[in-house]
């Protein structure tokens, strides 16, 4: 009777606070959950500073995973105990059908809730023993449950991280081959229809599999992507790499991407002895292209989507994902764009062919700027043009700290596997590869010292713009119409281009180092702001939130991107990655400040010479993404339903100084 | 596990013997890769029209079915021309992603089959109107300024020829053309584009063996 009474009391407390529905992490998007279960973010990693804990979707096998609970959201739990379970991931229906808790991490942990929020309520779930082996699925999913009444089953109102999708996933090293043996075949369907296909040897038992198409660059071979082809095939993808007509240009390359995809999907009955017939999903295709083939796949998408090319064996909706690697930009921006397709750009800062220089050459970043779909970018320092293939020869690289072909392939295989898993297999855990900064989340085989800038943005319609500098040219008004105040100096808004032939900084080219627009292309319209933070100074850039943007309680995150201005005296003086802080202020004047250091750092431009006398290559935008709930964590009295201002804080005490800084895309992200 | 289809070599040799049949004067194979050349591979960026160093091999051909002029954006096609092997400065032949020198024959781009790196031997298809057999002696064959063929129009091609003429470039010396044609042998009668590019690929194997992968891609068997 006593036990029953105690349990009833605990559940009553839980029900009373009602805020069990509050979710502070990436799982906050669990709208539409079965009301019986209380989705709450629990799994994550400790942080050294506020908010002291953050949710993550992925840890690698061998790494520790923790649970954290903000008890300021659940004051009634303070002083009570519960059992913490890590269980194999189950679907909502499976949980409802069978709520029994079976811990897989050495038995449930007895935890006692303390006052003090997340700093005082963190528990090691597993120190690295959990398996990441899930067969053909990249990452093994787990759910985390707080069994408040300690009855060994999931009851209504008990917090669960993972009622909809996994609470977290343990991944094997994504640069390593998957579980399947692979086969390959070479053949031709005619002129410029030479192909090689890599596929799982056991494909007969695998049902429909997604297709990944590789389109090579100029002077390259369709055989030079076998390192990725075999890798993806070992994880269950069918990969076709084709002969590409690149010498005339990228229009012809696009044609060969279109025709080779058509030929392949139309001839599955004969390719590889018919082994692929009935096992390649014509509605699930990714296009990945290198250099001239990079623009080729983007242009191919545009032609397919606009009816310029009528495919016989696939349709525009078949293309799930478009990914150029070190692409050229020969074509006008409004005809060479991935539009609403999921998009990723891979590019190396040491590229000595497609250099992205401040002159008339190609500007690979322009593809990222043009994309309207969910998009991401991985810009790797020390990576040459040729290391994205395996054909040997010159690296086409220039600059210090070259990481080599092998390390480039590690990163390339990891990211492409994650991105194909995300966009072609709906592996939501792979969003970590898109949304988390390279500075805090890398493939496990990344060598020490590798530096990369990462950017991402959700699809249009999944965010609201506070300021993207595309409209409202006044320095005192944001794109959304709110007021702008600042103490940063030398603030300028302008076109994100640098076409003076030099990366050296001159005051008359304030957006020096910005290579985000194709030279002379009026259809590329990207703009940004730049400013200085003087030596030793603190300075801010504050954006008022207009009435329509103030309710941030249901938003997922604040996002913005920053870069350091190359070859500027302040950048040279700082000589390191840049950190800063963000303050949110509500209508009552309450504020919350977080250092952005745990979320992302802003890379120092790659120390490459050329195009002027100084040292430093293109400006490297880095997206900083912080969950809005983190500003209200640990009992901070900030009203997220009435946020009035976002202040970006530079210099001491939480940031670096001095700095020459570029800013763009200050956004509120929806779940 | 590797489930290889029969690779090109057997097929290639048979096909080449049938299609080409003429006298080859192939260079000794060179085996060095691009990275043996030193540097970082950026190569020079020539800005003016450049003459080729010579014509090594040439053979007239006719097609039963028209082949597309892949280097022109206007959708034109051709039924006759020459298959040629020419010698160029190898440093102009390094493959690049950014605009490269464009090989031109008269006021149109040649159909360049390979880069010619590092051999300096470029295999090309030179389309011409049937009946203008003297074109090989009369038209300019040269490397035009770096550009992107599929983005250029008729006016651009004419302008490039004018600039080449202004730079003092002239048609090939008749004796060298005659010698190249003798090396090539009797005119070739082919059915279609596929046979034409396969013939050209055979020449790449012989004259620029470091580009074997490029050539063999045109010589793969049909799937089975």
Tell me about this structure.
Helices cover 15% and strands 27% of the residues of chain A. Chain A has helices at residues 2-17, 92-97, 226-234, 250-266, 292-305, 365-370, 404-425, 431-435, 569-574, and strands spanning 38-39, 43-46, 53-55, 58-60, 65-68, 81-88, 109-112, 122-126, 140-147, 159-161, 168-171, 182-188, 194-200, 209-215, 238-242, 280-290, 319-325, 343-348, 375-380, 452-457, 463-467, 484-486, 489-495, 527-533, 539-544, 557-564, 581-586, 591-595, 622-627, 643-650, 659-669. In chain A, the strands form five sheets. Chain A has a nine-stranded mixed beta sheet with strand order 12-13-15-14-16-17-18-19-20, with helices on both faces. In chain A, strands 1, 4, 6, 7, 9, 10 and 11 form a seven-stranded mixed beta sheet that branches. Chain B is α+β, with helices and mostly antiparallel strands and 224 residues long. Chain B contains six helices and nine strands. Chain B has a five-stranded mixed beta sheet. In chain B, α1 (8-19) packs across α5. The radius of gyration of chain B is 17 Å and the shape is globular. The two termini of chain B are 18 Å apart. The relative contact order of chain B is 0.24. Classes of the chains: A alpha+beta (671), B alpha+beta (224). At the A-B interface, β12 and α4 of A face α5 of B.
């Amino acid at each position: 009777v006593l036990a029953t009474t105690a349990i009833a009391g605990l559940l009553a407390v839980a029900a009373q606070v009602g805020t069990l529905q509050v979710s502070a992490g990436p799982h906050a998007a669990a709208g539409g959950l079965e009301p019986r279960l209380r989705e709450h973010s629990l799994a994550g990693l400790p942080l050294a500073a506020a908010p002291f804990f953050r949710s993550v979707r992925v840890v690698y096998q061998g790494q520790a995973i923790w649970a954290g609970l903000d008890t300021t959201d659940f004051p009634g739990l303070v002083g009570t105990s519960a059992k913490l379970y890590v269980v194999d991931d189950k679907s909502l229906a499976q949980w409802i059908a069978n709520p029994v808790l079976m811990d897989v991490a050495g038995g449930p942990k007895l935890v006692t809730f303390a006052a003090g929020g997340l700093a005082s309520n963190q528990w090691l779930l597993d120190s690295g023993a959990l398996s990441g082996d899930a067969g053909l699925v990249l990452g093994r999913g787990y759910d985390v449950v707080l069994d408040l009444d300690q009855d060994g089953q999931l009851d209504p109102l008990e917090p669960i991280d993972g009622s909809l999708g996994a609470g977290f996933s343990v991944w094997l090293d994504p640069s390593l081959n998957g579980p399947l043996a692979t086969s390959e075949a070479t053949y031709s369907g005619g002129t410029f229809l030479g192909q090689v296909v890599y596929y799982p040897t056991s494909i007969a038992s695998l049902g429909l599999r997604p297709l990944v198409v590789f389109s090579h660059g100029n002077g390259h071979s369709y055989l030079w992507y076998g390192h990725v082809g075999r890798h993806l095939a070992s994880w269950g993808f069918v990969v076709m790499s084709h002969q590409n007509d690149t010498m005339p240009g990228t229009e012809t390359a696009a044609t060969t991407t279109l025709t080779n995809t058509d030929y392949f999907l139309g001839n599955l009955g004969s390719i590889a002895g018919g082994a692929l017939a009935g096992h390649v999903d014509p509605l699930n295709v990714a296009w990945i292209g290198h250099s001239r083939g990079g623009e080729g796949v983007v242009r191919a998408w545009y032609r397919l989507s606009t009816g310029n090319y009528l495919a016989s064996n696939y349709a525009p909706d078949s293309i799930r994902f478009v990914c150029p690697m070190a692409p050229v930009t020969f074509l006008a921006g409004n005809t060479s764009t991935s539009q609403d397709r999921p998009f990723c750009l891979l590019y190396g800062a040491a590229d000595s062919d497609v250099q992205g220089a401040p002159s008339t050459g190609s500007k690979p970043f322009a593809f990222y700027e043009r994309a309207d779909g969910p998009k991401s970018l991985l810009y790797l320092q020390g990576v040459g043009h040729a290391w994205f293939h395996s054909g040997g020869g010159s690296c086409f690289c220039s600059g210090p700290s070259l990481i080599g072909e092998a390390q480039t392939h590690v990163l390339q295989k990891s990211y492409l596997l994650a991105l194909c898993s995300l966009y072609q297999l709906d592996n939501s855990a792979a969003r970590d590869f898109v949304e988390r900064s390279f500075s805090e989340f890398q493939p496990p085989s990344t060598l020490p010292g590798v530096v990369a800038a990462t950017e991402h943005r959700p699809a249009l319609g999944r965010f609201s713009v506070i300021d993207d500098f595309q409209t409202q040219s006044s320095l005192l008004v944001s794109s959304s119409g709110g007021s702008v105040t600042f103490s940063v100096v030398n603030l300028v808004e302008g076109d994100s281009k640098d076409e003076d032939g030099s990366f050296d900084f001159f005051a008359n080219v304030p957006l020096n180092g910005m290579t985000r627009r194709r030279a002379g292309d009026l259809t590329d319209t990207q703009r940004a702001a730049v400013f200085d933070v003087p030596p030793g100074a603190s300075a801010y850039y504050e954006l008022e939130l207009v009435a329509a943007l103030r309710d941030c309680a249901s938003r997922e995150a604040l996002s913005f991107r920053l870069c350091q201005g190359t070859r500027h005296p302040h950048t040279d003086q700082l000589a390191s990655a840049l950190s800063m802080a963000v303050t949110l202020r509500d209508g009552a004047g309450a504020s919350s400040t977080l250092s952005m250091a745990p979320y992302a750092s802003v890379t120092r431009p790659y120390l490459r010479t050329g195009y002027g006398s100084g040292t430093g290559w293109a400006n490297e935008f880095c997206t900083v993404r912080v969950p809005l709930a983190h500003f209200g964590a640990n009992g901070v009295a900030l009203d997220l339903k009435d946020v009035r201002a976002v202040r970006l804080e530079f210099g001491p005490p939480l940031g670096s100084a001095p700095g020459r800084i570029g800013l763009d895309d200050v956004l509120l992200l929806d779940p | 596990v590797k489930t290889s289809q029969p690779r090109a070599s057997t097929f290639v040799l048979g096909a080449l013997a049938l299609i080409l049949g003429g006298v080859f004067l192939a260079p000794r194979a060179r085996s060095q890769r691009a990275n043996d050349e030193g540097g970082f591979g950026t190569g020079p960026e020539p800005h003016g029209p450049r003459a080729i160093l010579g014509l090594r091999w040439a053979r007239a051909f006719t097609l039963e079915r028209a082949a597309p002029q892949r280097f022109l954006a206007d959708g034109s096609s051709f039924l006759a021309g020459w298959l040629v092997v020419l010698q160029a400065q190898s440093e102009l032949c390094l493959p690049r992603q950014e605009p490269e020198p464009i090989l031109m024959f008269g006021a149109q781009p040649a159909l360049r089959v390979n880069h010619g790196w590092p051999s300096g031997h470029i295999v090309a298809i030179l389309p011409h109107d049937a009946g203008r057999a003297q074109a090989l002696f009369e038209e300019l064959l040269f490397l035009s300024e770096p550009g992107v063929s599929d983005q250029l129009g008729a006016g651009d091609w004419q302008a490039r020829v004018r600039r080449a003429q202004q730079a003092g470039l002239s048609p090939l010396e008749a004796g060298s053309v005659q010698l190249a044609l003798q090396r090539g042998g009797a005119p070739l009668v082919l059915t279609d584009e596929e046979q034409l590019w396969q013939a050209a690929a055979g020449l790449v194997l012989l004259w620029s063996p470091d580009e074997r992968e490029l050539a063999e891609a045109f010589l793969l068997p049909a799937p089975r």
